[in-house]
Amino acid sequence: MKFTSVVAALLLSSSGVASAFTIPQQRTISQSTLTTQNSKNECDSNTNTSYRISPLYMGRAAAVRAATKGKTDAKKAKINGYYGKKIIMAVKQGGSPDPQANRQLGELIKAAKQNSVPIDNINRAIKRASEKDAGDFSEATFEAYGHGGASLIINVLSDNPNRSSADVKSAINKNNGKVAESGSVLFMYDLKGKIEIPSVVDEEDLMMAAIDNDVEDMELLDGDEEGTSIVYTDPKECNAMFEAVKSMGLEEGTKMGLSHVSKAPVECSEEDFEKNMKIIDSLEELDDVDSVEHNMSN
């Protein structure tokens, strides 16, 4: 029986069929073969890694671009809505839709154009003001405390003061902020004219342009976004400062307005900063809220 089994095993091995008795055959592999194989494996590995990373990187980049575009679009919508409501107020208060006869309206239209508000939006707002069901808009300012020493100023323009007051207070309280008494926060800020320029500005050139336009108070800072600039000035000199910027050929995309600037900015911890941004985001989502200003330096 043992002899038969061995013979059978040898027959199976010679025919190429593996069995428990098959004797492994030794292969001699040269160094060049190993080197070639390793290089191929490394190449394949690198190729696979490249294909794995690329789509992930592109996905993140697309997400960042989408988020940035979303914020930009939301900011434009806020600006357009703000001037739409202000124009309706000006027409009603001035009693005329003619910017020549209504000085306040004329100045608002000029400011709206400077802030890139489409002419169609301006005309719709003027037409809307003459309709019977057009609301009576009024301005209001709310003050609040955030986290880590932060304070907030909330600027509201609404045709329903009761609704806007309730919505603002709810957004603050839900995010663990605190509504402040009138005047308890505002005294810590200065009201200034603000010119936002979508490019880097040479300080000496700007100073000369300001002098030529009789501007006495001016401060140039880096903008919130890379490659932009902000100029602060006395509110009474805001129009003259804008003319100075125009004289430098920087009118395109430049925006003008008023802003509360903190006298003593505070730097919050990362955790407190995130909490405060949640309050600000909740407030800015409200239709009646036009802007939220704060004293955080980070």
Number of helices: 8
Q: Which stretches are poorly predicted, pLDDT < 50 over at least 5 residues?
A: 1-65
Kindly report the average pLDDT value.
Answer: 81
Q: How far from one another are the termini? A: 89 Å
Indicate how many domains the architecture comprises: 2
Q: Describe it for me?
A:
By secondary structure, the protein is an alpha+beta fold. It has two domains: 70-129, Arc Repressor Mutant, subunit A (Orthogonal Bundle), CATH 1.10.10; 138-294, 2-Layer Sandwich (Alpha-Beta Plaits). The chain has eight helices and eight strands; from the N terminus they run ααααββαββαββαβαβ. It has helices at residues 2-14, 31-94, 103-114, 119-129, 161-174, 203-212, 238-247, 270-284; strands at 138-145, 151-158, 178-179, 189-197, 218-222, 229-233, 255-262, 289-294. The strands form two sheets. The protein has a four-stranded antiparallel β-sheet with strand order 3-1-2-8. A four-stranded antiparallel β-sheet has the order 5-6-4-7, with helices on one face. A hairpin with a 5-residue loop joins strand 1 (138-145) and strand 2. Helix 2 runs parallel beside helix 4, helix 5 (161-174) runs antiparallel to helix 8 and helix 6 (203-212) packs across helix 7 (238-247). It is globular and about 45 Å long. The relative contact order is 0.11. Residues 1-65 have low confidence and may be disordered.
